[in-house]
Amino acid sequence: MKFEGSYQFPKSSSEVYSYISDLRRVSECIPDLKSLEIKSEDEALATVRAGIGFIRGDFNLRFNVTQRSPHTNLGYAVHGSGLGSGVDISITVQLEDLSTGGSTLSWVADTKVVGRVASMAQGMISSQAEKIIKQFFECLSQRLR
């Protein structure tokens, strides 16, 4: 599955980059985050409460920053397991300053889901993913005012 979008922020691309490239800070916006362990500047382990339909429980995630081009690009790889399922997500982020002030963040996430959760209808998975994405960016918008 592929998800993508763009958001505008009143902050410059360098300010947005500074926030989203810091795993501790950006994790503040992960919905239902139960725990976080920062391993290095480019790696974090997290546990989130997740659920789709009647399947609910904890998901263990490993976040890795895979690409850094200060103030313009970031890449993340996320690997997770739990609920008899697995997920791999590759995220690319592009930042661009606007001539009117502020910046635009454009992102693409390629997602692979296997196991019990994958057996759910794609519509249910997409709907839940879109809900989580919306919550994440609403939080990010609040933090970057």
UniProtKB/TrEMBL annotation:
Q: What is this protein called?
A: Carbon monoxide dehydrogenase
Cited SUPFAM superfamilies? Bet v1-like
Family matches, as CDD domains: CoxG
Q: Which Pfam families match?
A: COXG
